[in-house]
């Protein structure tokens, strides 16, 4: 059952959880640019005993390329610290296909390597009669690639996508993601792919099993992928407000996408997180900030407490009202002045 309020932690999250499953784009970096406080936040989390695995829906790059970029941004990492959607997709493929099966790869070098390392044969044309088509994002993909995928899928090949993210954060803004490119093949064939990436919890489960962690924590910027995957895998999730989803999105989140903790950025790993509590008059209070829903309208009392505490209170009030079957007018939920938006 979905919790109707946020979790609380009297201890910093880096001390309460032994593994952070950290998203990359929008969390550790944005395109090729660093995100403020990411390197220092993660370094201090490690110093407090928290292990890090970087879990990304980006299937275009090799794990070594990802770890090199992280290291260049003062976040030391090795390829073993990275779990990509390409690796997860290859595992999904091997669950059904025998070694040596032919797989048409529509994507970048990272996906091709992962498929080969899984003991499958990479091919590039529908004329090769592939057993499966696996599609992941790569900036060089074009119409011919998508058309070839459509021909193979239309001929009966099993269709697998590394992930279904509609957008991709870059230094210049948000660009079409793999889900948008997959949509072209879906529109042409009517076939919807199985997906290995978030919001499926599969990557999280693989990373946790490999690390032997007992108390993992998902850290992400997108409610529809990172936090939905955390919910699906029953792993607590921290939403950092440095990427796609906003604090307002938290308040309006559907039950399956709600975070357990909210922070402005990765410094949230180093802090305790107060839990909202119900008070008189249907108010929900967090460190002096308060919110309630009356007649479908969200009311806020921000005379005390931080903006982040106000967001926490608003989430608790909104979720409690919606879960009880009451209406919430989204026009009464403001854009909170917090995060990178």
Automatic annotation (TrEMBL):
Entry GO MF terms: phosphatase activity
UniProt xrefs under SUPFAM superfamilies: HAD-like
A single cellular component GO annotation: cytoplasm
Highest taxon of the lineage: Bacteria
Gene3D superfamilies named among the record's database cross-references: HAD superfamily/HAD-like
InterPro entries: HAD-like_sf (IPR036412), HAD-SF_hydro_IIA (IPR006357), HAD_sf (IPR023214)
Record-given protein name: Haloacid Dehalogenase Superfamily Class (Subfamily) IIA
Species, as recorded: Flavimobilis marinus
